[in-house]
């Protein structure tokens, strides 16, 4: 009986101490920011690093005293990559949680599905998905009023790549692409922009996202002898295609990958076959390879160091899109507070914002704020590491 | 680089097709083993392949076990998983109809896939090739040494299985269950044990397929479903239940994909294989080597 009383007393004391310790930081109030990411499901490779990134950032911001003395309160919902769930989550964020702004969704499909909601409720939404349609209203030919996005469009990666090829005097190219959304979108941009850069597409090969090898497609290309091969895929296929390319003795044909190639794991998996392969990559993919005077050197190195230290896993460049989105919103909150129209106007007028994936210059005409020159570097693999091509 | 000749290209398509086809064939054989004894299509068949690859990576790469030990250890582990599937998911179903059992295997495949993604994450894994990665050049076509391992193990598995089913008492007992389970149990065959054995065997051959293909294609948690679909196509093409048919079907589907991608259009290579499958089923519904009489008495 005595022991029991003692335990109860001890517990109460412990809680008391806890209560005394916890409110070390007194905030004036809180700014609520909503986030919708595909944390689980097939697109979790996007949503998972995005969620981890914004959680890490919120923790750092609040530790440093919050935004003008207000606590940054993140409300994150998992969309599972599903348009209906995403739609409901965004409505809940607006009507029940009453957030100041929303970042996400992770996917182009889910982003397109919530544009009408953001427009209807007049809430700033910064998407982390790539499609240019997110910031281009086909009816008016202008961006949607309340919607922004941070990732580069596929067309920018293609422009960076084609400019590089043109400088090297290459104009006869073979395209390989995976039959997923990523590959199909890249392929259509490659074909659409080819005439502008005098590129002649001599082969247009496809493969499935779970295919076991691409020997047949490459053998066909080998018979055509193009001046360069461009491959557009993510996942294991972008590694397999490199191995097959090397096995078939085709290394004399330069090989280019998409901006989805920027993971060190891919170099390792390719088991030596990635040597000499080049790709247009955002600064966030290869912070170490950037020269010290590169404008994005500091932000990308800081992000890389704090992310790897906190989560003990390799940095994913997809998290960088969420970094850019949340940083934009936080800057706006700092400037205008929780005023939705004010946040929207602030983001639209943001210039020279140095982010993870480029230097953003927003305007009424451009709600992405990026050009390919300011968001992609041509990077090649040398001795198993990234090296920037001057 | 000198231009490749058409003959070398054709040879390359054939080699590639036969290698991929061998894996489809092994999956198809796995389907047949279980189908023959229980008449159910085990939709978790592709998951055995995935587990074979990933467990091998774990034992060989992460634990550092030598190839010669890791290989049988992986097969044993996957076989145990196959046995567990039978004991935990199949045997306890009340009023089992073929249809409910098939749905149970779909559930099992989802559970295995979920657990694999939990254990190994979603990234692909690599396995060192058994005898190096230096490609061999034959008449302008390139062969990875690993290709011989894949095709070789298909041959070994085919021979071992045909000896087992034709020459041993247990094998014949399993075939008897396939013909008539009630009659088989009347003559003293333990049908439940035979079903268990069929899951074990089928898991083992799936594991072999996974182990041998991983150095070529990498392996990740959700690869199984695609292999199961292709393997099922191969089994149906060759005639469900027929082992030579499964092997023939696998090699044909692999080759059609490869030649179709190389000579016609790579975007439609999966369609070519399915079109051929449909055409053959139209003219010969029991498959290439399947027997119409047997397929008539089957429930599925």
Short account of what is shown:
The complex is a heterodimer of chains A (390) and B (300). Chain A is of the alpha/beta class and 390 residues long.
Structural domain tally of chain A:
2
Structural class from helices and strands of chain A?
alpha/beta
- CATH-derived architecture of the largest domain in chain A: 3-Layer(aba) Sandwich
Mean pLDDT of chain A: 91
Order of helices and strands of chain A: HEHEHEHEEHEHEHEHEHEHHHEEEE
Radius of gyration of chain B: 19 Å
Instruction: Write the CATH fold name of the largest domain in chain A.
Output: Rossmann fold
Largest sheet of chain B: 2 strands, antiparallel
Give the overall silhouette of chain A: globular
Strand content of chain B: under 5%
Helix content of chain B: over 70%
Count up the helices of chain A.
Answer: 12
Residue stretches of chain B low in confidence (pLDDT < 50, at least 5 long) are none
Can you tell me the residue ranges of chain A where pLDDT is under 50 for at least 5 consecutive residues?
none
**CA(first)-CA(last) distance of chain B:** 54 Å
CATH top-level class of the largest domain in chain A = Alpha Beta
Key structural traits:
heterodimer; A: alpha/beta; Rossmann fold; 2 domains; 42% helix; globular; B: mainly alpha; two-stranded antiparallel ribbon
Describe the model.
The complex is a heterodimer of chains A (390) and B (300). Chain A is an alpha/beta fold and 390 residues long. Chain A has 2 domains: 194 residues, Response regulator (Rossmann fold, 3-Layer(aba) Sandwich); 127 residues, Rossmann fold, CATH 3.40.50. Chain A contains 12 helices and 14 strands. In chain A, the strands form 4 sheets. Chain A has a 5-stranded parallel β-sheet with strand order 2-1-3-4-5, sandwiched between helices. In chain A, α2 links the parallel β1 and β2. The longest helix of chain A is centred in the first third of the chain and has 20 residues. The radius of gyration of chain A is 23 Å and the shape is globular. The N and C termini of chain A lie far apart (78 Å). In chain B, a hairpin with a 2-residue loop joins β1 and β2. Chain B has 12 helices and 2 strands, in the order ααααββαααααααα. Chain B is mainly alpha-helical. In chain B, strands 1-2 form a two-stranded antiparallel sheet. The chains are: A alpha/beta (390), B mainly alpha (300). Chains A and B meet through β7, α7 and α8 of A and α1, α8 and α10 of B.
């Amino acid at each position: 009986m005595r022991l029991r009383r003692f335990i109860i007393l001890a517990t109460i004391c412990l809680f008391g101490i806890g209560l005394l310790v916890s409110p070390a930081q007194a905030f004036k109030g809180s700014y609520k920011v909503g986030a919708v990411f595909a944390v689980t499901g097939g697109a979790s490779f996007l949503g998972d690093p995005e969620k981890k990134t914004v959680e890490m950032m919120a923790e750092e911001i609040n530790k440093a005293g919050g935004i003008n003395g207000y606590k940054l309160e993140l409300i994150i919902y998992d969309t599972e990559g599903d348009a209906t769930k995403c739609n409901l989550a965004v409505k809940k964020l607006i009507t029940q949680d009453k957030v100041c702004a929303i970042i996400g969704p992770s996917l182009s499909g889910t982003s397109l599905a919530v544009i009408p909601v953001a427009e209807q409720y007049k809430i700033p939404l910064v998407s982390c998905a790539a499609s240019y349609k997110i910031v281009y209203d086909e009816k008016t030919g202008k961006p949607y009023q309340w919607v922004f996005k941070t990732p580069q469009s596929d067309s920018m990666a293609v422009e960076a790549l084609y400019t590089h090829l043109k400088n090297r005097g290459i104009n006869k190219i073979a395209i390989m692409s995976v039959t997923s959304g990523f590959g199909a979108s890249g392929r259509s941009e490659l074909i659409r922009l080819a005439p502008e850069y005098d590129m002649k597409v001599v082969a247009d090969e496809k493969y499935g996202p779970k295919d076991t090898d691409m020997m047949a497609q490459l053998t066909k290309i080998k018979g055509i002898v193009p001046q360069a091969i461009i491959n557009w895929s993510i996942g294991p296929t972008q590694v397999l295609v490199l191995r097959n390319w090397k096995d078939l003795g085709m290394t004399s044909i330069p090989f280019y990958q998409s901006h989805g190639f920027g993971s060190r794991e891919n170099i390792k998996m390719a088991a030596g076959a990635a040597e000499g392969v080049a790709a247009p990559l955002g600064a966030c993919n290869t912070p170490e390879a950037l020269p010290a005077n590169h404008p994005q050197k500091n932000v990308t190195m800081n992000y890389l160091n704090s992310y790897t230290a906190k989560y003990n896993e390799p940095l994913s460049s997809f998290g960088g899109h969420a970094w850019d989105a949340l940083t934009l919103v936080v800057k706006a909150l700092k400037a205008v507070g929780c005023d939705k129209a004010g946040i929207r106007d602030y983001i639209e007028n943001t210039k020279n914002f140095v982010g993870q994936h480029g230097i953003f210059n927003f305007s009424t005409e451009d709600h992405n704020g990026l050009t390919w020159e300011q968001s992609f570097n041509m990077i090649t693999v040398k001795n198993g590491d990234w090296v920037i091509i001057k | 680089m000198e231009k490749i000749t058409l003959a070398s290209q054709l040879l390359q398509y054939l080699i590639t097709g036969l290698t991929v086809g061998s894996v489809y064939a092994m999956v198809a054989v796995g389907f047949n083993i279980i189908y023959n004894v229980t008449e159910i299509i085990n939709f978790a068949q592709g998951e055995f392949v995935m587990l074979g690859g990933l467990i091998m990576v774990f034992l060989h790469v992460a634990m550092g076990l030598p190839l010669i030990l890791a290989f049988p250890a992986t097969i044993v582990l996957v076989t145990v998983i196959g046995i567990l599937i039978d004991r935990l998911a199949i045997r306890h179903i009340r009023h089992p109809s073929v249809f409910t059992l098939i749905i149970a295997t779909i559930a099992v495949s989802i559970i295995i896939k979920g657990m694999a993604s939990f254990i190994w994450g979603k990234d692909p894994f690599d396995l060192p090739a058994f005898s190096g990665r230096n490609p061999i050049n034959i008449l302008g076509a390139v062969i990875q040494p690993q290709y011989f391992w894949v095709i070789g193990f298909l041959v070994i598995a085919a021979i071992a299985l045909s000896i087992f089913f034709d020459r041993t008492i247990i094998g014949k007992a399993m075939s008897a269950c396939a013909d008539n389970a009630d009659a088989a149990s009347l003559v003293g065959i333990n049908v439940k044990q035979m079903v268990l054995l069929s899951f074990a065997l089928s898991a083992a051959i799936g594991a072999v397929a996974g182990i041998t293909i991983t150095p070529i294609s990498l392996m990740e948690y959700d690869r199984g479903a695609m292999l199961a679909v292709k393997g099922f196509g191969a089994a149906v093409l060759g005639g469900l239940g027929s082992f030579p048919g499964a092997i023939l079907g696998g090699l044909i589907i692999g080759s059609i994909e490869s030649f179709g991608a190389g000579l016609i259009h790579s975007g439609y290579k999966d369609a070519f294989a399915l079109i051929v499958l449909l055409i053959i089923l139209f003219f010969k519904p029991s498959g290439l080597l399947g027997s119409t009489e047997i397929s008539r008495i089957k429930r599925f």
